[in-house]
Design brief:
The chain contains 18 helices and five strands. By secondary structure, it is mostly helical. The chain folds into three domains: 9-135, HUPs (Rossmann fold, 3-Layer(aba) Sandwich), CATH 3.40.50.620; 136-169 and 201-293, Serine Threonine Protein Phosphatase 5, Tetratricopeptide repeat (Alpha Horseshoe), CATH 1.25.40.80; 304-467, DNA Cyclobutane Dipyrimidine Photolyase, subunit A, domain 3 (Orthogonal Bundle). The mean pLDDT is 96.
């Protein structure tokens, strides 16, 4: 099947797995009266990957399945191919006779390099490329200082960001033309395609679930967000991070709904909660802008003066940290939650990250990689920003001398030990006080003693950073 008389245009789905507020999809649909072929190119790696793992790929599979249902309801289907994006897109352009390709840009350097190769291929065969932006509310190069430089500190970035007008979200397109007859497509991806095991828990995702989650959160729980967001035993956060990672939810829609909720708030608590949640969305914008301007942060410390820190490789300690077997209950609870669910509470992410870098003195890149391979919401920009913040090497990071004490963090944010007991079941019978102090003997048979002495390792960390 080559050279159709009335060829479609292609929309290449990537991390924009939704119909609402999808600029490339909407433009292709509007300009070509629905005569558009939705395409997804499945990666062909098998076994392991440095950027992802079972939890995130399971979320991807669920999101693609939901997208397929939405497209079928609108009169078309998702054409799936597997392999290199450049080669597979070229084949589709040639098979269908399409001469226009629409897609939304990636925020990370790997995706941007791929786009350059796709654009070069399109030029070679005489096809037009139409790239759009949707991954952040504002294009990442938009917010600049008065001198035109990118911001390095969050608070002035947020002030400047708030002064910009955010474009209104676009509606979902209407009906689509059916796909060309006899066009080859593959089944929806499954974890077996990558030789991956099923994770214990698969995130409920996809566009309909994401929209429901947003509305549920903003209709009530957000009013308590500022007061409860740091308590890991509570379901007090939005759980929208997976939706934003795969684009089953538009960030522009989330911002718009936040502003509507802020205008409708009837109490100071509700206003504070919504504003705090909006701040978190702006942190995501900040980290995306940093990665866009300084892609080298994925390889080295943002602050040049810390690029020669003498990290102390310790494979055995790293494996105990990954396994949730450090003897620090709050750290172990977080790492076990991650292994079991592909998600970790944000406060605990900070605790375990600072523990790895400041107590174990292990390179933050080890933790960054483990998170990307374990999280369903693994996002390169935010993950890197969070790890470099905890390691005191990033933009607007915690000063190196502010070293969180995991014992006091545990007592402050999980005083009754509810979170710890949920994820470290062998400690369920202990009184809370014993969970928040260094033990003089094993807490229970089979649970390890603390892998290090925090007070001593704090002094080691201070010296390590001073020597840098």
């Amino acid at each position: 099947m080559r050279g159709l008389n009335n060829p479609p245009v292609l929309h290449w789905f990537r991390r924009d797995l939704r119909l609402h507020d999808n600029p490339a999809l909407q433009s292709a649909h509007r300009r070509h009266e629905g005569r558009m072929l939705p395409v997804y190119i499945q990666s062909a790696w098998r076994g392991s990957h440095p950027w992802t793992g079972p939890a995130r790929q399971a979320a991807l599979c669920a999101s693609l399945a939901a997208l397929e249902q939405s497209l079928q309801a609108a009169g078309t289907r998702l054409t799936i191919r597997r392999g290199g994006a450049v080669e597979e897109l070229r084949r589709l352009l040639e098979e269908t006779g399409a001469r226009e390709l629409y897609f939304n840009r990636s925020p990370d350097p790997w995706g941007r390099e791929l786009e350059e190769r796709v654009e070069a291929m399109a030029r070679q065969i005489g096809a037009q490329v139409h790239p759009f932006h949707e991954v952040t509310a504002l294009p990442p190069e938009t917010v600049r200082t008065g001198s035109g430089e990118a911001f390095r500190v969050f608070t002035p970035f947020a002030r400047a960001w708030l002064k910009h007008e955010i474009p209104a979200p676009l509606p979902a397109p209407g009906r689509f033309a059916p796909p060309p007859p006899r066009l080859r497509t593959l089944p929806l991806p499954t974890l077996a395609d990558w030789d991956l095991p099923a994770p214990p828990v698969v995130a409920l995702t996809g566009e309909p679930a994401a929209l429901r989650r947003l509305e549920t959160f903003l209709s009530g729980p957000v009013s308590r967000y500022a007061a409860e967001r740091d308590i890991p035993s509570l379901e007090a956060t939005s759980r929208l991070s997976v939706d934003l990672r795969w684009g089953t939810l538009s960030i522009r829609l989330a911002v718009q709904r936040c502003r509507e909720a802020l205008a409708a708030a009837r109490s100071a608590e509700a206003r504070t909660g919504v504003q705090k949640f909006l701040d978190e969305l702006i942190w995501r914008e900040f980290y995306m802008a940093l990665l866009w301007r300084w892609p080298n942060v994925l390889e080295e410390e943002f602050q040049a003066e810390y690029r020669h820190l003498q990290w102390q490789p310790n494979p055995a300690a790293l494996e105990r940290w990954k396994a949730g077997a450090t003897g620090f209950p709050i750290v172990d609870a977080g790492m076990r939650q991650l292994a079991a669910t592909g998600w970790m509470h944000n406060r605990v992410r900070m605790i375990v990250a600072m523990f790895l870098t400041k107590d174990l003195h292990i390179d933050w890149r080890e933790g960054e990689a483990h998170f990307l391979q374990s999280l369903a919401d693994g996002e390169a920009a935010s993950n890197n920003g969070g790890w470099q913040w905890s390691a005191s090497t990033g933009a607007d990071a915690a000063p190196y001398f502010r070293i969180q004490n995991p014992w006091s963090q545990s007592a402050r944010f999980d005083p009754e030990g509810l979170y710890i007991r949920a994820w470290v079941p062998e400690l369920r019978g202990l009184p809370p006080a014993l969970l928040h102090m260094p033990p003089s003997a094993p807490l229970v048979p089979g649970y390890p003693r603390p892998i290090v002495d925090h007070a001593r390792e704090r002094a080691v960390a201070l010296e390590l950073y001073r020597r840098r």
